[in-house]
């Protein structure tokens, strides 16, 4: 599937693909774009299938579909290898690429994500909720997982913007990606990921807490390391942008 993407930075820079969360669009990466461009990277953001300005798929999605979307995007841009930075569903996409297409990667940064998240039933039920009750009901729950209560209280405008981001996501696109998570189990493939990998977790992330999620990934991927960021819930790159950006840029430079 052809995904909607935005490219910033020098045409000859090493490419960094930013892959986002379910229920988001590519604007969630705004805090990271300018710093990465300033470091000389060509930054490629895209909307997951059925999200933002990317078309809604005809049926359910799998992780192979989402990973394949990134490979098609790289091919369309004429990019052989890229750094991939993914958060939540984007991190799952990154892990799939690390397992199934490592020759296309320079490095991975896996933020606030999991190799196996919840039960299939819970994700299929969330997809049904999106289709039957609408995306506002989904956004009401997701905003509380994405950010800590203190951040939400002190950022009322941003709260409205991120709530709208999810509420405006097509229900069918959201449900398709719920299916991808429901059918995902990447744990067994993690030891085969050969590229330099950084795992970043939010200390206050209720969706993918460090213990049981980030720690599992970091322990399984060869030579990976885990960084836990205080004061960050699920969209840690937005809530703690300076620290997340510092971790990302340092890892890319080393890789």
From TrEMBL:
InterPro entries: AB_hydrolase, AB_hydrolase_1, AB_hydrolase_fold, PcaD/CatD. Residues 15-246 form the AB hydrolase-1 domain. It holds the Pfam family Abhydrolase_6. It comes from the Bacteria. NCBIfam families: protocat_pcaD. PANTHER family: AB HYDROLASE-1 DOMAIN-CONTAINING PROTEIN, HYDROLASE, ALPHA/BETA FOLD FAMILY PROTEIN. This is 3-oxoadipate enol-lactonase.
